[in-house]
Amino acid sequence: MNVRLSDCKIGEEVEISKIEDGNIASKLIEMGLTEKLITQIVLIAPLGDPIAIDINGFILSIRKAEANQVLVKKINP
């Protein structure tokens, strides 16, 4: 079942299924957030924005609005 990256919790491991918004998709892909990538939620700021994820040892911080455009499949629900 696909959920939005913005709805995931710290420590959850997810696989990227799809990036919906074409405008932000190219930016996220350039930063390494690609389909089929398995990543983990590392940190969520106290107010929920931004969200930090681990991409092969690189910590990427994205806005909640951007994370809302990313559909993921939970690996360890």
Description:
With 77 residues, the protein is of the alpha+beta class. It has a single domain (2-74), classed as SH3 type barrels, CATH 2.30.30.90. The protein has helices spanning 22-30, 64-67; strands at residues 2-4, 13-19, 38-44, 51-55, 58-62, 70-74. A six-stranded antiparallel sheet has the order 1-6-2-3-4-5. The termini are close together.
Q: Which bin fits the share of residues in helices?
A: 10-25%
Structural class: alpha+beta
- Overall CATH class: Mainly Beta
Uncertain stretches of 5 or more adjacent residues: none
**Largest beta-sheet characterization:** 6 strands, antiparallel
Number of strands: 6
Write down the Rg.
11 Å
State the end-to-end distance: 10 Å
CATH architecture assignment name: Roll
In the CATH hierarchy, the third-tier topology is known as: SH3 type barrels
Order the strands across the largest sheet as they lie in space. 1-6-2-3-4-5
Note the beta-strand portion. Answer: 35-45%
Number of helices: 2
Mean pLDDT: 89
Secondary-structure element string: EEHEEEHE
Coarse shape: globular
- The total number of structural domains is 1
CATH superfamily: Ferrous iron transport protein A (FeoA)
Provide a compact summary of the structure.
By secondary structure, the protein is an alpha+beta fold. It has helices spanning 22-30, 64-67, and strands spanning 2-4, 13-19, 38-44, 51-55, 58-62, 70-74.
